[in-house]
Amino acid sequence: MSKTEKQRAGRNRTLTLSQEEIPELKKQILTLDQFRALADSTNSSNAKFIDDKTSDSTIPTSSFLDKTLNCDLLEALKLLPDEFADLIIIDPPYNLTKDFNGTKFNARSNESYDEYLSTWLPDVCKKLKPSGSLYICGDWKCTSSLQRAVEKELTILNRITWQREKGRGAKSNWKNGMEDIWFAVKNPDDYYFNVEAVKIKRRVIAPYKVNGVPKDWDKTADGNFRLTYPSNFWDDISIPFWSMPENTDHPTQKPEKLYAKLILASSRPGDIIFDPFLGSGTASVTAKKLGRHFFGVELNEEYSLLAQKRLNKAETDKSIQGYSDGVFWERNSISKQ
Ligand SMILES: C[S@@+](CC[C@H](N)C(=O)[O-])C[C@H]1O[C@@H](n2cnc3c(N)ncnc32)[C@H](O)[C@@H]1O
Question: CATH assignment of 22-336, given 3.30.2350.10, 3.60.150.10, 3.40.50.150, 3.30.565.10?
Answer without folding.
Answer: 3.40.50.150
